[in-house]
Amino acid sequence: MSATDPSSDAQSDALDGSSASAERPLVGRIPKKYCILVFLVLLAAFSSVGYFLTIELALRRYYIAALMWSPGLAALATCKLCGMRISVLGWKWGQARWQWYSYFIPIFYGLVAYGFIWLAGIGGVIDPRFLHDIRDTLGLSGWSDVSVVLFAFAILGIVDMIWHTGTALGEEIGWRGFLTPQLMRHFSFPVTSLIVGLIWAAWHAPLVYYTKYNAGPYGLNLQMLNFTILCIGMSFIMTYLRLKSGSVWTAAILHAAHNAFALILFDRMTIKYEETRLYSGEFGMVLPAVVVLFGAYFWYRAGKEGLTAPRDPEE
Question: Which of 52, 127, 148, 291 is most exposed, with minimal Cβ within 10 Å?
């Protein structure tokens, strides 16, 4: 990963995804100084619908997708109410290398975390039920175990990424498209990353406590703690990528790759022993610890590259 940016990655427009000259102030019904509060209120309102669907009805992918788009809808509505151009959300694609980094980072930290779990004997590899399900779902009867895993990796990494990117984008328009740059007006890189990470984790709390979005019904407070650590670590990584690329797509792709590889492929490949749930997955100890180390590295990179000071996203 390069330590410096070319001139096209100029920091003056890295947060808002457009040049300052293209931005013209709009007259909004609500002063911009209240935009973060407006976003949080709208987030709670939109999310209540998704919480009802997932908690009262069922934890199904379409209900989850509706919930995941709540932050994005809140961000878009906030821009409208506060007279902000939606270009501040970072729609531009930016340099492709940042999107590739976003894609491969979760694969890398997932391999580190689950490699440790497998080698330490905390969990086994490969779960026969995973192989059976993949063969049945994808029609791979007669294929070798290695071929099944490689094909599953390709399908998840290409085809399934389309679904995951579409749902992750809904969240990331809110978290990294809107909230991160608005907080960076007032706070430093680490404080902004910490705040967004905590809000992100708290937003998931109803699912952890009231649905099966957890590692089992026991030790939920510890699971929530581990998940919060994971969110904070990922937040540091995503804040760095948002600042460097000027694009919300880096966060959407990283989030999608995390769900596709760390959450689905690596975890479902793992043979679960009696205590495995304490260590594997988003609610165990190992993956959050590894992600926090990655987050610390990107915090270090941000400091070396002068990205830690507060900045105005519309400058």
Answer: 52
